[in-house]
Structures are given as C-alpha cells and as structure tokens.
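Write out structure tokens for Xanthine dehydrogenase YagT iron-sulfur-binding subunit.
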Amino acid sequence: MSGETEVELHINGQTHRMTVDIRSTLLDLLRERLHMTGTKKGCDHGLCGACTVSLDGERVLSCLTLAASVDGSDVLTIEGIADGVDLHPLQQAFLDCDGFQCGYCTPGQISSAHAMLAEYQRGDLSMATFEGSRADVITGCPRLTAPEIRERMAGNICRCGAYANIADAIESVAGERRP
C-alpha cells in the first residue's frame, strides 16, 4: 500500500492535480508544494487561526486539514481574495483601520473575516446573536455588531493585540454589505 494519493483541488480559481502524501496537510501543500506562502503556519495545532482558508465556502484550519481528504474541493486563500491588483474591500479596510501590527496573523484574519461575512450574509447564527433582543434573533440582525464580530472571529489570535482595529475593519465592510 502506497502512502500517496492523487488529488485535484481548485485553488483560487485554478485547478491543481498532484500526488500527495496521505499525511500531508492542506497548509503544507499550499506552502511547500504550490509556494502560496500567504497562508501562515502559526501554532500547527489549530489554535491560532493563522492558517485559515476557505474550503467550499467554509472556514477551515488548513494545518488540521489533510490534503487527501479535500479532493475535488474549492480552496480560497489570501492570494485569491483580491481581484488582481485591486484589493478586496476587506483588505483595504484592514489598511484603513490599521488592522495589523506585525502582520503575521493578517492573512488568516482576513481569510477568516471574508468567510465569516459570507456566513453572516446567509444567516448563520453565533452565540452573540442570542445575546441581543428577541427581535434581533427573530428578524435577523440588520447589522453585524462588534460583539458579534468578536464572537465569530474568536478562533483567530493576534499576538500584537490589534483586535479593536481588526473588528473596526470588519465592521466597516459589514456596514457596506447590509441586506
């Protein structure tokens, strides 16, 4: 029995077919095989969020995701969020709101926020959703609040402590996307 398998992944709109070790993580595949180094290896234990990417529209920790297990999936990394040289509004908001200091966690923060905004738009709830008034829960919150953002982004760690600016950046983009 071989320890390798064939996978096909659609990463940032491009199809990649390759043989991978069955123990290889999606993070290692992205960084070491495809040289997409925007996604960072932080703790390598799924605790910090630096490796966050979108897999079929859902946030995943790429350091805990085996590449062989996601054959045929669509992957969106930080490299694929911008439209060519034009920054995505979320990336611009991080610049405008000074949502980073050292920048190491920034790709994971932006990738997580990008997927989180899509989750929110489709009506996914968080624990913070239920802390508002019953009217907000029943009718859906028309605006993504700071407590809601903090709850939804809780898995992404910033060692520099830029949380307030990160939340401001996300809130500024969420305000533009109101239903």
